[in-house]
Structures are given as structure tokens and as C-alpha cells.
Amino acid sequence: MVQERLAQVFREIFSDDDLVVTDATTAADVPGWDSLAYINLIYAVENEFAVQIPDERLGSFANVGELRVCIEELSDVG
Amino acid sequence: MADPVGTGRHRLAELTAAAAAAEVPPAGLCRDLALAYEKAGDPAAAMRWALATTDAGGDLTCWTAAAGVLRRVSAGAAASVVSPGAAASPGAAASAGAAASAGVAVPARADVAAAAGGAVVPSPVAGHAARSARVALLGSYTTAQLAALLPLAAARAGVAVEVYECGYGQYRQEVLDPGSGLYRFRPDVVILAVHEGEAALPALAEDPERAVATEVGRWTSLWEIITARLGARVIQHTFVVPETEALGHLALRTPGSRSSMLAAVNAALGRAAAGGQVAFVDCERLAATVGKRSWFDPRYWHRAKQAVSLAHVPTLARHTAAVLGAQLGTSRKCLVLDLDNTLWGGVLGEEGLAGIALGDGPVGEAFSTFQEYIGRLRARGVILAVCSKNNEADAREAFERHPAMRLRLDDIAMFSASWEDKPTQIRRIASTLGIGLDSLVFVDDNPAEREVVRQLVPEVDVIALPRDPHGYVRAVADYPFFEPAALTTEDTARTEQYRARARAAELAASATSLEEFHRGLEMVATVVPLDELTLPRVVQLIGKTNQFNLTTRRRGEAEVAELAADPSTAVICVRLADRFADHGLVAVVIARRAAEPGGAVLDVDTWLMSCRVIGRTLEDEIAGLIVAEARRLGCSSVRGHYLPTAKNALVADLYPRLGFRPDPAAPADAGRAAPAGGPGVAPADGTGAGATRWVLPVASALNRPGLIRVVDARAGGAAVASASARTMEEVAG
């Protein structure tokens, strides 16, 4: 559930309906994923899930899976 | 997937049906329609829905996607225009693209209307690009989002723009340096998007008048240079007075409080600019409107130096575009007003003059207040027209005889009351007044009338009034495209005196060259040791610095610590502070002594600097520090590498600029010899092509500008801690 909503946010941010997003996806896998897109993405994720990612975790996500786990912890929607 | 075209059509039909369910479709739907039409190969409709996104509220994500549609569609349209003139300048091409789209806008609209059951089409926007402009966005914070949204917002305001964004926080340097990218761009308009932290005002000033005058001078002198040297107009964002104030309410009666001074600077800037080439976006008012705690989000400030929270960047873009449009003459000129249930409550023809709600009671008061607001628009130059289905004599009588009527007949430039349909009346209003339909804004409480006007006179903007009259004033006030460029000539003449007076007083004290600016910063660079306190920041810089990074070698904490422990390695960590701010640890150099046949060489493995301090001559001072380290380690020369990446072109010429010569001993393809792992390990390490190697004998004289005082605070270094802070001259001399 979180995974699918997260994938939808990615598709919106990168304007790509066909974007496939898995836990293993990293910045290197998505064209256009730079620091600007990352901040826009975090902003959209925080809006979509109504969560606030703690400051210290912001720079810590190695891949989409870690971001997903963080969202699940924060929102109890796992 | 078997029939992508059919699937696309199905998707479009679904979206269009959804849009038909609301008078103003939600922004997400507008965005989806824009993307779907783009995919379906209908650029005019795609552009129209992209622009409709901006009127539908829309958050940053929607706007960004819509801006992407506009960018791609404009580029495609420009490419297909076979006109050498249009292709000559991107700005012209963009406007030609918009015009080309406008050419097919009408049939496309008919299609949508048919598919939607004739219900919903957003206000037309394609083809609004009546003007084009080259716009330079000079910011003191991260303005990438604003830069991305400006073309969309500006297109909505009728201006096709090409945007140039200065380097992070580089606005002052770019204005002062005639060799900067800003001058090469040749802007028509320069937007100074600055935040309050950029105002050089203390928390509490002993001589507030002087502090304010000095600060005002820092900005007016920039305006002078921009208008004189670039011939560009200026749009200045005002400072938002922070909602936190240590002095509490006492701040207001303390002229030296930062809050009081910021307000004074805003006011003084307004006086200094009056009547001139400088326009404002009053961010202080925008921020207060949405709530200052919402406008500024400390989380995103600390994360990404966003001084305007991302939620409000669309609003800022919209208002900046409205002011831009006003400066270029695309503002709307005429407000077309319905009467029954718009200017008064009830239907005049049924309830009679005595029966309409106006003046008394909560409803009557709300209508009177709305009329007063309309009257103020009239007073500052908006043309008023009436467009009503009424008997003309009855309608006029209401204006002449109702005691609570705030608007008078002579406020109305064109009074159209008849039983004709409103699109016909509106066309006649425009032709009678001699203005274009795209100068009109229509206000009506009746959704059906609004819709028919949207459908049949798409050039007219339509403001949807809310159900209750108490919301009318805000509905009209929130519409930004009535923005006036100036008041009357008399006002201009009067304010010109203020302006001249303010300028004369303030210019004297201000820097007008880059060097003066740098001197005025009173910069101090402090060389600090690499220890457990600085290591995390050093590793962070190594991990994320892209632009000023000669080799882009990423290293973890353990690796850096190990390197630093090696006595043949020199690590230089530098903090930079100036009169206004402490920028923290901003530069790192790692260099290794290598014994070679011709004598020991100091090989610069890593050299990077935070983008916060680019353009301040810090690199020149650091070159001196590197040479000093080379001497300390008994090296006869320094060797530098440049490994190109997608982002570090900034420093491609750093070594030759500092006086280094090409390394004669470099292999034919230096990049492949670089010890960085080679292709495939990490793209940022440079893949070889274009890598260069440079040498500098330690005996060479370096040309150092001397604008930064350098202090060595390394224990055991040449100078011990603060006991004798030594200047750069002494350390490297």
C-alpha cells in the first residue's frame, strides 16, 4: 500500500507514468533525480503521507526501501 | 497496451468527464489533463490545462509537472515553427510557440467542450504570451523551484520568459562583476529574490537610522547598477519580518530592534523606488496573508536553504509573474460586473429598489463592503463596466437612488444592462471601450453565466465568486492580474522627489565594485584542525559537494581519518566568516607527498569548496595555503588534477587561473592514469575524458587578492591557536 502510493508520488515528481519503483531503487536508477528533485520528492512524500521526516533521517536513505520503512514507522500505516 | 492510442483516448475521456463535475477543476486534474493532452499530441490543449493548473490553487508538485508540460510543449512548438527569426532567440521562440498553439486553440476547445458535455473548460490561456522577456532570477536562497515555476506563472500572466538563475547566493557578485553570467545573459528584467537573513542588520542597533540607511543603500546601489549597466528593470522581493522576536512586543517601540529596522528598510526601499524602474513583490504582505509560520518552514531552511517554504513557492511565482506582467503591460484593465447578487443582494427586477440587500444587516453590509473595495480599484485606475440582465432604466435608478450605494454611475465607464446574452454584451463592452477582450475580467455570482463566458469569450478571465457575499472582496483581491505598473503621472512626479532624495543619501556608503564589496565583507578564513569535531562536516562536504570539486572523490569517515593520520598527508580545513554570517567549515583540501625522481611533489588529491562561498576569492587564499603545506613537507612543487563531471565545469580552469602550468609529465590521457578507480566505479569520479594535470613550483609567486584575512588555528601548526593569529601573508609569505 505504502509502496504503491510512494511509487505514484515518484511518477508525479518525475512526470513518468511508466516509472517502476521498488525498494531497491536508488537515485542512480531514475533520470533527473538530483538534489532539487530529492527535496521536491521529500516534500511531496511528506504531504502525501502527512508525516514529518525527522531532520536527522533526511539524508540517510540509501534506497527507496529505507524511505518506505521510515514512512511506515512514522504513519503507522504499514 | 495493445492499443496505446485507444487507451490514451479513454484516459482523456475519463479525465474530461471528471473535470466536468466541478466548475473549477482541481489542480491535480488540470495537471493530469495537461499531461494527457501532451501525450495525445495536442499541444494547445496541453498548454491550456497546464496554465489552468495555476488558477486552481495547485501545490508545488502540480505546478512543477505543469511547468514541465509547458516547457516541452513550447520547445516542440518552437522547433516546428519554420521561421529563422523565431529561432534566433529562445525568448522569441517561446512566444512564437505560444502563438502557434493559440492558432489551434479554438477547435481544440470545441473538442473538449463536446467531450465534457459542454460543461467545463478552464479560462483560456494559450496564446496569452503577448510579451516575451529575458528574466534573471538572482536569489539569496535556493531558488531552483521558483526558477522552474516562473515560466509557467509568467505564461499565465501573458509573458513568455527565458529564465537565468544565478549561482546559489551569488546575486551581489553577479551584479558587480561585468564578466558574470548575468551580463552574458543580457536580462530585460532582474528579480532580486532575497530573504530577510540577507539584510545586514544586527539584532539590536545603537544607531538604527544609520543602520537602516546603510542597508537601503546596499540595495539601491544594486538597482542603480542593474539599470545603468544592464539596462534592465528590477523586481525586488521585500523582506519578511520574522515572526520570532526576542524583544517581544517591546520591539515595536525600539527603533533599533531588527523587526523595526526591517520594516523601516522595506518602507524606505519603497520610497526610493517610487516612480522608477524598480517594482516590488511585497513578500511581507504575502507571508502575513498565508501566515508567517507557514511561509517560512525552518525544516526546509536547514535542509535545503529554502527561505520560502515549498508550499508557497507557487504563490510567490504567481505574484512575481503578476508584477512582471504589470511591468511589461499585460495586466488586465477592466472589471466587468454583474449586478443582482453581485453588487447587491436579491434580484432588482423582482424585489424592487426597496427590497434589495445593501447597506443594512450582515448581508447588506457585505455587499456595501464589496462595492467599497471595487471603488478602490476604480480609484487606482481599473476601468469598471456593468454587464447585467436587467431593465437598463431600473438598474441605473438603483445607482442613482439607493442611499447605501457606494458606486456611482460615473464610476462606470460602460453600463450594459439588457436581455442579451452576456458574451454578446461583453464583446460590445470591449469594442466600445476600445480595449481587447484579454483586458477584461468578469465577475458574476451565477455559475452558469460564468461558464458561458468561459466557453464563448475565452480571452476573458472569470473570477468565481463564493456562495456568500462576505467572501467577495477576497475573491477579487486574490486575483493577481490587475496589478498596476504605476499610479497616475502626478503621483509619479511626487514620488520621484522622494526617490531622488533617498538615493542621494544612500549611494555614498555603498560598494559599487566587486572588490569594494569583498572588502566590505571583512572576511576571515580560519584554518582549523581535522579532529573529531570537524571530521563529520569534512566527510559531508566530500560526500555532497559537486560544483567546486576538482576531483569529486567520495570518501567515508574511516578513510578520511586514516589519510589524515598519515604524516605525508596534508589536510587543510577552512572556515569562513564575514561581517554578516559565519559560513562554517566550507573548504577541504587533501594532498599527499609523493617522492618522485625530480624531487618530492605535493599531489592535491581533493580540493573542494561549498557553493556558499564561491566567488569570494577564497580559492586564491587556499592556493597559498597549499603551497605553504608543500614547503612544510619539503616538496618542490604542487601537482593538481581536474577530473571533469557533469557538474564541476566551474573549476575546469581553476589551476591555470591560479598560475599552474600543464604537467609535462602527464600521460597522454591523464584521466585514465588518475588513481580514482576508473570508469564504472563511480561516475562522479570522472570517466577520464577531459581530465587535466597541472603543476606549480613552490617558488612561484601567487597572485593573491588579499581580500580575506587568513588565520591559522591549528594546534601545533605554524601559529599556536589564538596566541598569535597570523595573517595569510605571514603564513605563506
From TrEMBL, chain A:
Coiled coil spans: none
Gene3D superfamilies with a match to the protein in the record: ACP-like (1.10.1200.10)
Matches recorded under InterPro entries: ACP-like_sf, PP-bd_ACP
Organism superkingdom: Bacteria
Carrier domain location: 1-75
The name this protein goes by in its record: Acyl carrier protein
Organism in which the protein naturally occurs: Parafrankia soli
TrEMBL record, chain B:
InterPro entries in the record: BF1531-like_N (IPR049369), FkbH_domain (IPR010037), HAD-like_sf (IPR036412), HAD_sf (IPR023214), HAD_SF_ppase_IIIC (IPR010033), SGNH_hydro_sf (IPR036514)
Gene3D superfamilies given in the database record: HAD superfamily/HAD-like, SGNH hydrolase
Residue intervals of the BF1531-like N-terminal domain: 134-323
A Pfam family the protein falls into: FkbH_N
Domain of life from the UniProt record: Bacteria
Name recorded for this polypeptide: Methoxymalonyl-ACP biosynthesis protein FkbH
Organism the protein comes from: Parafrankia soli
